[in-house]
From TrEMBL:
It is an enzyme of class 2 (transferase). One of its GO terms (molecular function) is phosphotransferase activity, phosphate group as acceptor. HAMAP family: PSRP. Keywords: Kinase, Nucleotide-binding, Serine/threonine-protein kinase, Transferase. This is Putative phosphoenolpyruvate synthase regulatory protein.
Amino acid sequence: MAFPFGWNILHMASPPIERTVYIVSDSTGITAETFSHSVLSQFEEVHFRPVRLPFIDTVEKAREVAARINRNALETGVPPIVFSTLVNPASMECVRNANGIFLDLFGTFVGHIEQALGLKSSHSIGRSHMAANSEQYRNRIDAINFSLAHDDGQFITQLDQADVILVGVSRCGKTPTSLYLAMQYAIKAANFPLTPDDFERGTLPSTVAPHRGKLFGLSIQPERLAEVRNERRPNSKYAKLEQCRYEVAEAERMMRREGISWLSTTTKSIEEIATTVMQEVGLDRSN
C-alpha cells in the first residue's frame, strides 16, 4: 500500500488502549470508585472498563475476586488495574496476590497516620458508611427531602429555611446541582425557574424576591440549552435556538440587574458547579 509523500506508518490511527479496572471494597465501593474516576480521568487516550465489586467482606469472596482478576489478565494479556479499600488483612492479601496492578487506597495512608498519631486504626469494615443514625446523616436526609420538595418552584413555603435558592432558565442544571448539594453536603437547596413571564414583567418572581440574599444564578450557552431541551421536547418552541437565546440573554440581564451572582454550567461538572455555589454563597459544610 502506497502512502502520500511525508506520511509514515506512525501517522496511522492506532487502536485505543483498553484496560479493565476492578474497584474492590468490603463496603459500598463509593470511596474507591470516586478516587479511581479522579485518577483515571488523567489518561484520556485510554478506554477504561470499570467493574465495581462491593461488599467483599469475607476471604471466600476475596478469593473469587482474585480468580476473576487472574482470568481477566489471562484473557486480555495485560494485568487489570485494581483499586481497593479492603480493610481485612487476609482479604486484602488475597486480592493483592492476584495478577493485577493493586492500589491499596486505605493502606497507603493509614500506616502513615498511625505512625504520626502513635495509634492503631480500628480496621473496621465500612466505617465511613456507618453513620445511619448520626446527626450528619439525618441532616443529609432532611436536605434531600427539602430539595426534592422545592424542586422547580413546586413548593414555595419554607423558603426561609433554604441555605441557597438556585435560579435560572429551565434545563440549565438547577435540579442536579440542588440534589448534589443536599446529598454531599446536607445543604438545603431550593431551585426556581426564570420564565418568559418573568422577563416580560422585568422583575424577579415574587416568591423568591424576599430571599434575594440566598439567590444564586445558573446560566448556559443557548446552543447547549437547545440540545438539552430537544431531548425532552423535540421540535417544540421551547427547544428552538431562538427561544433559548432569548431566555438566556434575558435571564443573565435580570441577574446582572438584580445583583445576583451566577455562572455558566455549559462546560462544568456538577461537582465544579456545587463547589462554586458553596464558595460564592459562603456555605462551608463538612459532612
